[in-house]
């Protein structure tokens, strides 16, 4: 590969240059030891893997080391979690280890809005960038279509039940479900930030234009079907989960599921190819599985269990990434993903940056497109010291699980040694290993220190334990998460949320479901404006949702939205196609 300089090149330019030397999927398959029919190519550089064949063939092979990557509470300055995941994979490769990774597929919403495609950055990226960022093999489209088919089924049934009597319904082989149009709990799905669609009215027109009712949209990655893709174990499990999705309630309060609507089988047919993970690679050629894409603030926030199971059989070290900070992504990895999969991790990497900790210490606000305040580019150990408490909170969370924590200081050229030394001292005193990562600038060579620290941590003896037992009642689970992970004094409930929580606790079937919190990712609290490590606050639960198919009860904290809005300066303004070469430019 030609020498690439991230200080002088944009990420998409680096990716485009590196893609000239990419391994084909056939080369990757040979290196991984895959059989010919286990590789399902989508062109020369992207493929799906036949999960069933691989897992059946390798069922007796010992699993590799399982490494999770999380971060401090995100800020607009970024922590580089995916960059660090890619860098760690490259670093382990530099040390001669057989390594794989698993990350989530990026949503079109952030890709075309502010965040970008989430492929990493500098010399630590997942490629091919365009395929990764723009649809890949169609998994998100499949989730969107399966989700919207359920909405088609319920709105169609409402129209027919309104227009026909019982005899006419029977002639059409339909049973009256008596759906309450005011209690349809699903929305439509779209994989864009389109806040104008949060609330809509359906059926405006004549008798044949649908039943008039209030509805709305959510972003596809928040769909329960996307969560199912992340936690499912196999196609049989996925089919069963799809059939348990609650779409609405009838007029007596009884749930109406996709099975009741006789649409679950068709939804499974749409999803049956999406269950196979996608094979891509790092800039340095290590294999990366990209699968599922749920946001951690409004969903489970994990790449798929299937991807992890495959990688642990094919590699000696497997790096999987969780969304956002350890209070959200790691907590759900720990208490949901590991509980569902039965897999036990060996190590968790907590990514931080000097400048993000400065923001948590009270540093100036950052405006997109504006030059950084000098506080973030010049030495200020006092500001770092004030913000390091946020990192320490996440270290404590990881240690409560029994997993060995490794702090990665994702290095920027403006960082000073004094600032790095301060973070190292505090993190080591809190019981974490610490490594400085220069992978953005130097790729795998810059991640050697991090890779060595992770290898050491994986050999450490530890006793993994969940934060709570399955038998703990819902409100006690929420309180434990709020106090021990978020640092709250306690929990308050709206009248509606408390009634729903009590109903869940009284229902033997629902009380066994897992607890998937919905909370802002921008703060340890429910308020995105509060940075650092706040004290003396209460977590307000305003609603409790039921994702019966995914197996979740979902307490909702604060005023979070399921469909983000588009910024005034969205990323799509800078994305285009070179009409001479056909190459997409401007992705980041």
Give a brief description.
The chain is an alpha/beta fold.
What does this structure look like?
The protein is built from 20 helices and 25 strands. It has three domains: 314 residues, 3-Layer(aba) Sandwich (Rossmann fold); 133 residues, Domain 2, N(10)-formyltetrahydrofolate synthetase (2-Layer Sandwich), CATH 3.30.1510.10; 84 residues, Formyltetrahydrofolate synthetase, domain 3 (Roll). α16 links the parallel β18 and β19. It is of the alpha/beta class and 588 residues long. The chain is globular and about 80 Å long. The strands form six sheets. Strands 1, 2, 3, 4, 5, 6, 14, 15, 16, 17, 18 and 19 form a twelve-stranded mixed sheet that branches. Strands 20-22-23-21 form a four-stranded mixed sheet. A three-stranded antiparallel sheet has the order 7-12-13, covered by helices on one side.
Defining key terms:
single chain, 588 residues, alpha/beta, Rossmann fold, Domain 2, N(10)-formyltetrahydrofolate synthetase, Formyltetrahydrofolate synthetase, domain 3, 3 domains, twelve-stranded mixed beta sheet, four-stranded mixed beta sheet, 20 helices, 25 strands, 18% strand
